Structure to design on (364 residues):
């Protein structure tokens, strides 16, 4: 039985392709491979049908994307080009236990002190809270902890327990600025001219400031704070605050309902609340904070809040308004990251929590 010319041609093309071996690069530095069928007579139908097959090289095409493994803290690059074709007609498979991050893996809640004061500060706070520190509280100790956890950037949140400490803390914080350490400033409710100090902090390059209602004995909705918070809004600075109870001071001023009033009064202020909106006050977070224009960090919640409640709050509020924070040196950042990755969040949610949200917030 005679075969048509088109059938014969298809068989030839298939035969030629079957002899072509596709080799996927083993690591990111290999060049892309271009595989074409053997050259045929000029003008033949086979030559016109020749296809250029691009095999994914695991090399960044437009924007760098990193993959950090929770268990090994190693970073890999992946290709984000939609034009990239892999032999199985899919995007590159993820490594087991890993997640691709669109932004830098960022810890938004860390604490360090000047080298000369770190030992005394760590000792006093560990004794007060009954929790040992996992590194020495210096910037070098922070960087070592970051390296172990695969963290690329940490935001330092200093606390001034007295008004007279504010200026010195802010001067020191400004010296920490680098690609991997982003210092916030400190503010105290009893500072004589907080607006002037905010303007000075802004001139120093500090992106935000932290306050602590329990250590500083104030209520966040106190009207005397309004000029300071209005100035922060005008300057585009981030107001970061402890929220909820504390393992040290046995007072309770920064509750979810109080912060809800702050949000009402200052709708354009960028607010970040630690401890998912209120340490040991999570039962009130859905009513007063979820869905509001406020960011929540994850610091010191894992192990204190049941996983299912943690996931419910994050998803109800939106992962794009949640920031990973370790509260270091009081927790193991690597273990915290691994815990979050084990909770069943989608890749997009993990992207936001572990770096994407921080990337957008700090870029404002």
């Amino acid at each position: 039985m005679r075969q048509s010319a088109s059938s014969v041609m298809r068989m030839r093309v298939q035969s030629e392709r079957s002899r072509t071996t596709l080799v996927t690069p083993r690591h990111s530095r290999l060049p892309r491979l271009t595989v074409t069928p053997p050259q045929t007579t000029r003008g033949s139908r086979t030559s016109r049908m020749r296809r250029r097959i691009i095999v994914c090289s695991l090399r960044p095409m437009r924007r760098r994307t990193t993959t950090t493994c929770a268990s090994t803290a190693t970073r890999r690059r992946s290709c984000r080009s939609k034009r990239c074709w892999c032999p199985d007609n899919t995007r590159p498979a993820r490594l087991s236990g890993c997640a691709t991050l669109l932004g830098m893996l960022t810890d938004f809640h860390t604490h360090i002190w000047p080298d000369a004061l770190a030992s005394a500060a760590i000792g006093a706070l560990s004794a007060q809270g009954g929790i040992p520190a996992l590194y020495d509280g210096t910037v070098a100790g922070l960087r070592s902890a970051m390296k172990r956890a695969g963290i690329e950037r940490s935001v330092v949140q200093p606390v001034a327990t007295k008004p007279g400490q504010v200026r010195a803390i802010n001067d020191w914080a400004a010296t920490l600025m680098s690609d991997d350490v982003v210092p916030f400033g400190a503010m105290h409710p009893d500072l004589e001219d907080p607006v002037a100090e905010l303007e000075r902090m802004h001139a120093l390059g500090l992106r935000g400031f932290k306050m602590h209602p329990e250590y500083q004995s104030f209520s966040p909705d106190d009207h005397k704070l309004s000029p300071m918070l209005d100035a922060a809004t005008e300057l585009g600075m981030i107001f970061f605050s402890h929220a909820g109870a504390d393992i040290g001071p046995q007072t309770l001023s920064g509750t979810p309902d109080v912060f809800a009033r702050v949000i009402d009064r200052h709708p354009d202020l960028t607010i970040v609340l630690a401890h998912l909106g209120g340490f040991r006050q999570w039962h009130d977070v859905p009513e007063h904070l979820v869905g509001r224009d406020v960011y929540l960090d994850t610091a010191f919640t894992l192990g204190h809040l049941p996983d299912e409640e943690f996931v419910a709050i994050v998803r109800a509020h939106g992962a794009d308004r949640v920031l990973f924070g370790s509260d270091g040196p009081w927790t193991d950042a690597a273990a915290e990251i691994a815990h979050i990755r084990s909770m069943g969040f989608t890749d997009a949610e993990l992207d936001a929590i572990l770096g994407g949200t921080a990337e957008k917030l700090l870029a404002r």
About this structure: The chain has two domains: 11-101, 106-362.
